[in-house]
Amino acid sequence: LPGWEEERLKKFQRLMATYEGVTQEILFDNLSYFLKRIIPVCEEVDVKMAIHPDDPPWEIFGLPRITKNLEDLKKIMAIVDSPYNGVTLCTGSLGADPENDMVEIVHALKGRINFVHFRNVLFMGERKFKESAHLSTEGSLDMYAIMKALVEVDFDGVIRPDHGRTIWGEVAMPGYGLYDRAIGISYLQGLHEAVLKEQMQSKETKGGKSV
Question: Which residues pair with 28 in a beta bridge?
Fold first, then answer.
């Protein structure tokens, strides 16, 4: 994992060699083989899988990428049509590509989102971005719209603020600052409460009640 294994750079060339000659087709076939064999067992023991999108969602160093957009994720979901073959909706990973409409993705994957990584990113140019604070105003993603979409599709799984900056002089593992993640949790809880109250007010208005 980035930031956690200091010796990873020493292994980089060997790791790259492992993927020599591996195409997107080969990688997808390998994933298909894997999912077809584990999902029936997952159903038996009630363990839901949640594949994480490519981060970033485009090819780097010539490595094949097969979870970079909605089309890819739909293809993976079709390998085994089961809620146990699901997705980790990482808004920061998928959202790093402005072509990925996060609200559309949430609605399209209704019932297949088993885990959510809720974070924001700031676009800085073509294939350039940085991780920002969670607030919509701090990045390029509409976090309120994403939360609203999650409520609309009845998502009831696990959600976390995912990454966090190191702020207020904190010494922490890069990308996993405790303070910023705590702020992120409070923010996503606030968004969730606001969306639920908005829905309730809308229902009361339609029912002829004053609000």
Answer: none
Report how many domains make up the chain.
Answer: 1
Q: How many CB atoms lie within 10 A of CB 190?
A: 12
**Within-domain flag for 87:** yes
Cα R_g (the chain), whole angstroms: 19
Look at 27 and 206; give whichever has higher pLDDT: 27
Active site residues: 52, 90, 117, 162-163, 176
In a domain, 124, yes or no: yes
0.85 surpassed by pTM: yes
CA 143 → CA 108, 156, 163, 172, distances in Å?
17, 17, 15, 25
Side by side, the strands of the sheet bearing 113-117 are 49-51, 85-90, 113-117, 158-160
Q: Which residues contact 156 (CB under 8 A, 6 or more apart)?
A: none
**pLDDT single digits (tens) 21-71:** 999 999 999 999 999 999 999 999 999 999 999 999 999 888 999 999 999
Q: Is residue 3 part of a domain?
A: no
Residue 106's CATH number: 3.20.20.150
> Domain for residue 110, yes or no?
yes
Q: According to the 3-state scheme, what is the secondary structure of 47-74? A: CCEEECCCCCCCCCCCCCCCCCCHHHHH
The closest alpha carbon to 42, from 52, 51, 55, 53, belongs to 51
- Domain that residue 62 falls in: 8-206
- Torsion from C-alpha of 60, 71, 147, 2, nearest 10 degrees: -20
